[in-house]
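Changelog-linked ticket: heme C example.
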Amino acid sequence: MTSHTPSNEPQNGKSPEPNDPVLREGPEPSEKGAPVPFWLTILASVIIFWAGIQLALNSGGFRADVYNPSLVSWSGGGGGGPVAPPDPKVIGKRLYNQNCIVCHQSSGMGVAGQFPPLLASEWVVGGDWVGDNHLVKILLAGMQGPVQVKGSTYNNAMPPWSQLKDEQIAAVLTYIRSEWGNAAVPITADYVKTIRAANADRKEPWSQKELKAIPTEIISAGAGAPPAPPAAPPSPASAAPPAA
Ligand code: HEC
């Protein structure tokens, strides 16, 4: 008897058994009704606030086209927020690889006798009578017939690229004008737009002979904008030469 632990034994067989192991267990601890700790509330608020700021800064204004290089317009139209414009040369390179590389090659050297080079081509960087307007025109409507490039004559046909948007044509031209050692000023989407509008009815590919009859227009270095902006009221088509 004495060997037992007294507290664990029913004392005298009476009904209330305060020392019964089951009864000695307290009720299951419960947190259900406990209030959320104050520090947790603060922490959650801070995280939500921080997340909100990150979204505002990095969401690109929730524009669907922000990450789509082929849709994006960086010419300064519409668009809210300080979205940095994508680099036309990066977009231009991609467009070149998609559309031009098969003929003009990644080296820009073309294929002798078939596809003329873009590297150091007077058509690309400008030459005696070849202007930036001529370059944009042949991209928009294509080119066919005999053409001299760097002293060699080619007589073939290039399809038009009018399905590309103004920004895309501007980007691919800006790319070929600054790649392979070429160093001509960028072509802006506004300039492409102007040339496109002035030649809206031109569907057949241009020939060198025809183009030669059109006055040369060179985009001034630095500004990268269409030359000779009209003094008084801005009229978009006035900078373009008359359609042929
Ligand atoms: C199917 C082949 C083909 C593709 C694709 C092509 N070109 Fe051409 N390109 C030609 C040919 C051929 C000529 C010369 C046309 C002629 O003989 O009158 C030419 C001429 C040119 C010229 C003027 C001549 C020169 O060499 O500088 C430029 C600039 C040019 N292409 C740029 C481009 C760009 C930019 C692209 C892509 C958007 C492109 N081409 C896609 C075949 C192609």
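Closing comment: Example verified and attached. The CA atoms of residues 148 and 197 lie 27 Å apart. The longest helix spans residues 38-58.
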